Amino acid sequence: MFTRNGKEYRRFCKRRQIALQKAVFYKLKGHLLEAKRWPFITH
Known about the structure:
The chain is an all-alpha fold. The chain is 74% helix and 0% strand. The longest helix has 32 residues, at 6-37. The termini are far apart.
């Protein structure tokens, strides 16, 4: 799999990495929005 479909595997890894980054970004964005909505909860 690694030698024959090395290119495909790398592409998959890159796509997964981007997906993870997006998920983290949206999670952080959501937290920031929550913080703005509820200022008395934040430190």
